[in-house]
Amino acid sequence: MGRSASAAPVLVRVRGMTKEFTQGTRTLRVLEGIDLELHRGEMVAIIGASGAGKSTLLHCLGTLDLPTEGEILFDDVDIVQLPPPQLARFRNESIGFVFQFHHLLPEFTALENVMMPAMIGRVPQREAKERSEEMLEAVGLAHRLRHRPGELSGGEQQRVAIARALVMRPKLLLADEPTGNLDTRTSDEVHALMFRLNEEHGITMLVVTHNLELAHTFPRVIRMADGHLIGDTTGARAKEDDARAREAADAAAP
Ligand SMILES: Nc1ncnc2c1ncn2[C@@H]1O[C@H](COP(=O)(O)OP(=O)(O)O)[C@@H](O)[C@H]1O
Ligand SMILES: [Mg+2]
Question: Which domains, ranges and CATH numbers included, belong to the chain?
Fold first, then answer.
């Protein structure tokens, strides 16, 4: 799905989004006027140095934080303007989050953790359970339903977090360095899983990563620096750009 998704209808349209943080008398501008369109079914990687504003962008897109200025049209509705109860409902139904650390609740089983957003979303318990079992099966954990997070490996914990993020069948999955805490092999498995879920269910995914090699496999790569989007191209092109930048850096080295 991902490969031809840029021709698909627009799911999210961001216009002139800025974000400032004020600490005492100082104001730090972290997003400097972002314009961005995400199409349905797209698989997009975000790369950029630490501090570039990647997490802030994801938080604003996911309504965990509000932008200072600008609009975020999601299916043509400006979510920045939604009153808090509708905003909470929108977030629960339309957005899935995966973070670097899984944030699973330690005293609950994998199944109960995945059911949580569905229970909050008032999905009837039986349906919530069925959906959660299906999601855990989809991420290859049908045999780990009753395990608690402490009884799962790092990769399994992150797969539970992905199942939890997808149980409400959101239109957009936002992932902030979802494999930043995993070893290479496990991280490859989790990425393969995300690509498969994109292919099979058409979920739009925006994935922040430090892993350039991984980013280069995405159909679309967005590059951020100092609160700006400074690049928006295919993974193959980004790969060439990064190779050229590395050669230039090597040539300049003494
Ligand atoms: N809640 C906050 N209050 C003040 N400054 C923040 C806050 N969140 C992030 N920042 C600052 O915004 C900048 C961008 O942060 P972030 O979006 O986390 O970057 P990235 O994810 O690309 O590493 C950093 O300089 C960071 O210190
Ligand atoms: Mg970050």
Answer: 2-252 (3.40.50.300)
% of the chain exceeding 70 in pLDDT:
98
Whether this prediction's pTM lies above 0.85 is answered by yes
What is the CA(228)–ligand 1 centre distance, in A? 13
The minimum-distance atom of ligand 1 relative to the CA of 224 is 22
Q: How long a stretch of residues is the chain?
A: 254
What is the DSSP pairing of strand 228-233 with strand 220-225? antiparallel
Task: Identify any residues that bridge with 74 across adjacent strands, giving them in sequence order.
Answer: 12, 77
pLDDT, residue 4, reads: 54
Ligand 1 atom with least separation from CA of 208: 21
Which residue's CA is minimally distant from atom 16 of ligand 1? 53
Which residue's alpha carbon is at the smallest distance from atom 17 of ligand 1? 53
Give the count of beta carbons closer than 10 Å to the beta carbon of residue 17. 22
Q: Please give, one letter per residue, the 3-state secondary structure of 14-60.
A: EEEEEEEEEECCEEEEEEEEEEEEEECCCEEEEECCCCCCHHHHHHH
The tens digit of pLDDT for each residue in 21-31 reads: 999 999 999 99
- Closest residue (by CA) to atom 6 of ligand 1? 21
CA–CA dist 62, 200 (Å, integer): 23
